[in-house]
Amino acid sequence: MTAPRTESTPTATDRLVLDLRFRDLPPAQEGGHPVVVLEGGDGESGDAESLESWGYAAGALGRSHGLIERIGERIESDSIREIVLPAIDDEELSAAGDRLALIAAAVSAASVHDVIVRIGEEDPMDSGEAYRWLRHRLRTEGPGRGDSRTVTAVISAWNKYKDVRANLLGIRAQVRPFDDVVVVDNHSSDGTAQMIRADFPEVRLVVMPNSAYGACETFNVGFSTALTEYIAILDDDVVLTPWWLDRSLVRMGQEPETTAVVSTKVVEPGMPDSYRDSEAVNAERYMSTFRGCASLAKKKAIDEAGGYDERLFIYGNERDLTCRLLNLGYRVLQFSGAETWHRTPFGVQMGKRSLYFHARNAFLGMIKYAPLKDLVRLPFLAVTKVLFRGRESEESGTVTDAVGTIGIGKSVRETKGSWWILTKAAASVVYNLPYCLKRREPVKAPDFELPLQ
């Protein structure tokens, strides 16, 4: 929540000037106030600062995922009461380049603080008014102007107050605004719902009656609530880069009607450069699953396929849904042109719960959808190609689709009682055989692959 502001004129010590210029332009100085430039800057003289001095690589805004939070921290630590931003001209609005993205990030960061915002020659605005002003300009003059397609961001959240806040600020910073935002809160006990109501009134919040629901069910609630042509499927702990929606929609618009999902690039803590930059991870291709933490989907296709299978509870649900999409004649595109920061560390999460659901759900999905010849081979292949797969192979980018299997061998070795957990997972597979066989529909589409690669 924002704190009350005392009425007084901001001074040099509580004003933050974000000039956002490029290195080949001289950094601006305004009355000796701090200046933050997009690249470089004279960080050794006067009060000039640079994004590099904040820990961000020059020219790599797409990977500067903590920028909004960093500006927010600066507002709080230095008791900033006024933020000065450069003017936005028509060319910048239509091009949606780095500087516009940084301005959007700064306005988003300010929107949950009680500060004055000055943008070019515009009259001073409070932070909420500045956010609404910029959103209106982006809608009417920005990169998505004239495009009637509508998108709802759907987030499933549970006890991740800080992450959800960062996620929603990233959504506010989009250079092409979302039409609607739906958060389904799984009865969090950390104040997530209260924070959303107080600081993000534009969000449609659904609070589940208790926390016993799985991610599959809470996402389905969000999907059913969406009223737009497209839905962005987002985990609670992602931060979208400012161009994410614009670039994803542009790419979707270049695809045939049969493309149901655009699965965007995800960067995570601990992700090796060799994986992140590998050709396989960055090449455009059709695939047999999608990254459920950040993908753009056609709502009609998701509805037609029936959404996530709620019996899975969590993990493996994206591949399961993709199999049904493939059976309906749809396809899923891997697209690296829009990037997302996912706060969950790279690879499968360690722990009993993760190991159980990953192991169980991989087999439940394949019993329903794998061709018989592949299903018969699956147990042997799971041992030889997943459990015994080397770390070097996983980090090189050879595992591009079955990212939930990265590190599964390590999880088996390091999780206490792992073989008992796998035994319980196998027992659950046997218990669910009637359910799976009743729904069995082997996929014949050429995009289908077993969850190994």
From TrEMBL:
<dbReference type="Pfam" id="PF00535">
    <property type="entry name" value="Glycos_transf_2"/>
</dbReference>
<keyword id="KW-0328">Glycosyltransferase</keyword>
<feature type="domain" description="Glycosyltransferase 2-like">
    <location>
        <begin position="153"/>
        <end position="284"/>
    </location>
</feature>
<dbReference type="InterPro" id="IPR029044">
    <property type="entry name" value="Nucleotide-diphossugar_trans"/>
</dbReference>
<keyword id="KW-0808">Transferase</keyword>
<dbReference type="GO" id="GO:0016757">
    <property type="term" value="F:glycosyltransferase activity"/>
</dbReference>
<dbReference type="InterPro" id="IPR001173">
    <property type="entry name" value="Glyco_trans_2-like"/>
</dbReference>
<comment type="similarity">
    <text>Belongs to the glycosyltransferase 2 family.</text>
</comment>
<protein>
    <submittedName>
        <fullName>N-glycosyltransferase</fullName>
    </submittedName>
</protein>
